[in-house]
Amino acid sequence: DFPLLHRASFAVETAAPELLLAVLLCGSLYMPPTDSALSARNLFDLAEELAFRRLAVGLAAAERADGGGGEGPVSCPPRLYETLQAALIVHALQSTMRSSTARRRNRTVRLPALVSAVRVLGLAKTKHAVADLMMMAPEARWAQFVQAETRIRISTWTLLSDCQQSGVFHCPQLMTTLEMTGSLPCLPELWNAASHSELDQVICASGRDCLVRGASIRVAVETLMAENWDGPEAFPVKPLTLPDLQVLVFSIHSSMRNARFASILPAAAPVVARAIDRWQELWDLAARGLTAEELSRRGLVRHSGELCWLARVMLDVSMSEDAERSSAYLQGVAHDSLEELHAFLRVYCSLDD
Predict the structure, then answer these.
(1) Out of 22, 110, 230, 319, which residue is the most buried by the measure of CB atoms under 10 Å away?
(2) In the chain, how many domains are there?
């Protein structure tokens, strides 16, 4: 729902081979089920191995070039961003496979590698330095904006991948909203600008504040869970988009699961419940201008309202006395199949109906 790759600067001739392969295989999922499209899935393991080997090598080289690592984040060479993007795409592709071995490897080996890279490179702290950007020449401003936004999107994609794995397989999350102190992904019209002149036109039309968004993921989540609430109009993220709300509802889910895993959900439940209510209020306002057909064309973000419903159901069930007896999903931690989640949904969707 917010693209990971910057289309205007992506070049087949110069892109990293692992990124080209990842993009090609991702495209095969959207093709008609021809023999060639289906056979492309045989390359998923190869693409995974290539991307993550190059990520390990590139990260080690960056740390050596930075003096062996020490205080503060390691400088990231441009090529390493492409390797990280490739690894994220392949990680998402492998999550669609039916192999329990691939799922377990995705969760226990590949995801920790992604989270570690985000932390070593300090990506989750990245903010657009608006004052500095506006003093640059147009071409330099565009290049700097794209690089910072790429860092922001890589860290946000990693957080969402972690949330998704945690939710589907009921396992502790690796990343936290606490460390997401950088900027939110920018507005689509900025990311989709085809040139430096088009980017400047968008900034001129919308004002330089369009680069800032007002708050980080951490601040947004803390606002949803705070004791005081001044209503949607005082929410710090402006303008608030549907993809923003998708990130926030995933974060609410992760906060609820983390509280349950730490055996403090009874104390945290009122905080989570009011965050759900406030999120729903924001969603109703943000989505009210869209028809059902328009919302259906918005990718995975269209399911955010359903995720909010699911958060409410999971909170209620988790707080019940027979939570673990009534749900195989809640009984264990770190499942290797989707069956436990599917069984939970079958039971509680039917009860809700």
Answers:
(1) 22
(2) 1
Question: Cα–Cα distances in Å, from 316 out to 137, 172, 273?
Answer: 54, 20, 9
The mean pLDDT of 40-57, rounded to a whole number, is: 96
- Domain of residue 302, residue span: 215-319
Residue 160's pLDDT band (cuts 50, 70, 90): very high
| Mean pLDDT value across residues 19-34 | 91
Count CB-CB contacts under 10 A for residue 100: 12
**Quick one: which of 74, 160, 178, 162 has its CA closest to 119?**
74
Q: Is residue 258 part of a domain?
A: yes
For the chain, give the mean pLDDT.
Answer: 93
Q: For residue 234, give every residue at least 6 positions away whose Cβ sits within 8 Å of its Cβ, in sequence order, or none.
A: none
Confidence at residue 351, expressed as pLDDT on a 0 to 100 scale: 60
Closest to 344 measured CA to CA, from 168, 204, 203, 186 = 168
Let me know if residue 246 belongs to a domain.
yes
Length of the chain: 353
Q: Is pLDDT at 191 greater than 70 in this prediction?
A: yes
Task: Kindly report whether the global pTM for this prediction surpasses the value 0.85.
Answer: yes
Contacts of the segment 109-113: beta carbons below 8 A, 24+ positions apart = 110/48, 110/52, 111/161, 111/162, 111/165, 111/174, 112/174, 113/52, 113/55, 113/56, 113/87
